[in-house]
Amino acid sequence: MRSLPFVTVDVFTDTRFAGNPLAVITDARDLTDREMQAVAAEFGYSETSFILPPRDPANTAEVRIFTPVTEVPFAGHPNVGTAHVIASLGSLFGRDIGDLLRFEEKAGLVEVSIRRHPDGSVSGTTIRAPGLLTIGTVLTPETVAVCLRLRAGEIETTRHLPVFASVGLKFILVEVTDLDALAAASPDRDAFEALSLAHPTEECDCAMFLYTPIGHDHIRARMFAPLDNVLEDPATGSASAALGAFLTTLSPPVNHRRLRIEQGVEMGRRSLIDLDVISVDGVFDHVTITGSSVEVMRGTLSL
Predict the structure, then answer these.
(1) 117/263 same-domain check
(2) Catalytic residue among 35, 42, 47, 266
(3) What is the CATH number of the domain that holds 193?
(4) Segments forming the whole domain that contains residue 228
(5) Which of 131, 173, 168, 136 lies closest to 156 in space, CA to CA?
(6) pLDDT of the residue at 282
(7) Domain count within the chain
(8) Global pTM?
(9) Given Cys at both, which of 5, 112, 147, 208 links 101, Cβ 3.0 to 4.6 Å?
(10) Which DSSP letter does residue 208 get?
């Protein structure tokens, strides 16, 4: 029997039992891909991350991320939470850890900076999304409304139609008319499956990120991914980053825009995701995702 060390953290919050839970396997060197997937399914969180030695010694670690049903190339809350765990450990695979980390991931190299309290404990982490903004297929309000059990009129189309977008992981971005529509949304798995089959070239499980503005640069959001066995996610950094990048294409050009995404409220797991969207000469360059995490559990799995 093998023992596998793990830590769980609640991400995008400084309060236990809020935010988005994440399991971090701190030494996954002896695991096969199949075992990683089985461990992620066992935890049942929206994602579980697995830490491996870096392929390039100039980097901090290789990080692999699994949902309960599949591996994903990049995700926001696993990176924010994994960075918190590594920085709190202080060393990894016999090497000391500083406050600038680099993770090797399927989507590319993810750069991380660590913020600390005066006593040296980790106060937050900031990651840079690895991808450029890609914008895909535009969908009709009627198609999306069926998936969300909403009326077509509750899909806001003044600024944009529902659209596939990514800065490392693809989502369908959907603006709804108000907080009532956001609260009323509920995913219809059959409709999600039909939508996925209708758009095979998007190579996406049609995860939907719903949002509505609630103040200046303050947004409330929800995320549904029933085809990944994630009925609803309390905090989705990668989707927030895609939204922040996409919104820059709809606004007058600025070199720096800061957004706060509030998510998970309807689930009783309020999360706060802070974005800094950077443009150069009015053209999107990159987006960073910042959040706090708090440790909840520490232990071992038996394999």
Answers:
(1) no
(2) 47
(3) 3.10.310.10
(4) 134-289
(5) 173
(6) 83
(7) 2
(8) 0.95
(9) 112
(10) E
